[in-house]
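INTERNAL AUDIT FORM
Audit reference: QA-55
Scope: verify that the stored structure record matches its stored sequence.
Auditor: D.O.
Record contents follow.
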Amino acid sequence: MELDFERCYRAVDSRDQRFDGWFYTGVTSTGIYCRPSCPAITPKRQNVRFFPSAAAAQGIGLRACRRCRPDAAPGSPLWDVRADVVGRAMRLIADGVVDRDGVPGLASRLGYTDRHLHRMLSAEMGAGPLALARAQRAQTARILIETTGLPMAEIAFAAGFGSIRQFNDTLREVYASAPSDLRTARGGQQAAIGAGTIALRLAYRPPLHAQALLDFLAVRALPGLDEVRDGTYHRGLRLPHGTGEVALTPADGHVAATLRLTDLRDLAPAVARCRRLLDLDADPAAIDATLAADPALAPAVAAEPGIRVPRAVDGFEMAVRAIIGQQVSVLSAQKTLTRLLTTPTTPTTPTAQVDHEVIADGVGVSRQQLHAHLGEEGRGAGLRGFLSAEDLLVLPDSGFGMPAARRETLRGLARAVVDGSLDLAAGVDREDAVRRLLALPGIGPWTANYLAMRAFGDPDVLLSTDLAVRRGAAALGLPDTPTTLDKHAERWRPWRSYATIRLWRAA
């Protein structure tokens, strides 16, 4: 990826937070790399290099700045929305695919050879897939070191390192500190935390309209799976190595996240999925500027800046929700989904007792705050992960509570996921996934496009045939037939998914 030196240097000189995650600043005179917004004195031009990824900076021996924490910056909005191979690869790496399946597994999912994928990532990101995964492992290890009292050996393997030596060497190279020194410097606790409760901050680019996110999630919450309570979103997670539960509380400049995991190897994918759920890597300034250029949307954008597209932590879950939600009210869909979730095959997250204070990104989280996240006296609500495709296939007809045609559509979806003919992960080829969805009986354009927007992260989907979207368009004085609305919405590209959310809110 080409980085314009003058533009990047101006962003660094102005300490512009909007560029955090877009690129990284390497300072050759000090041997560190920083966020563009680092509060340190602006380095001299001759001592600066710019990098498209933290891994690229680490690749020439630079260490992470201890002051600005560049590895905790929001992810690049470029890789968050791009549908090409590099964008898909970055989303899959963030979800831990390299740690679980290696580079061959990543390359296979993308349809390329290991060597070709390495060339493409190196050209765009300045580092290959192994280096990018290594940077993520280092960040995961730092979080565990600073927020838990787990033994270093357990942290090493939970973060994805193959050996203790690799763990020690990597952290010394990235942070210029031994693992034990990181814990001492940040006040890490010494008591082990059992089932794995971790508190951390998820950074985002402001503005963030938190209430709009919570409103959207609250009206679609399912008993036993997720809920919004006292400004916090709680939900159960089904993760690669087990189950988990998360509490997400939007705050000024970050979202406070409290995670309980049955297997700490799931930390990186859990964080990636939470970021994706809340659309935290979006660039709201760019999105709002495009939408506000339309006089019909300008007042809504001015009144509610920072609207995000709530996405998915589980592609199969979102597909089931979309199919059940076809041509019915949200309330009716919730009743049917609740019946599905009564299956006894869906695991709950074991309750973890929390009796210590943790530190995340330099800010203490008190026992009271942690208990507020997890529920009465620090205990979680035992929220469940959603049904897996395998779970759904063993349900009897009586467990569905819907017409036979829709039941068979769900079973057809589940069979396609189980046999591997349909991939619903965030790193999927969007166009191919939509084609495969449309080939399944009972799935039409609305469902496929809804999944493209919420499960696959397509930023440019307008659901112009949706009744609520049309009502919202009429309320804002916009054309409200599918054809005329589609034509008008050309000016909203490439952010029509965000316009869809705004039209729903206006309905």
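Auditor finding: record pair retrieved intact. The first strand starts at residue 24 and ends at 27.
Action required: none
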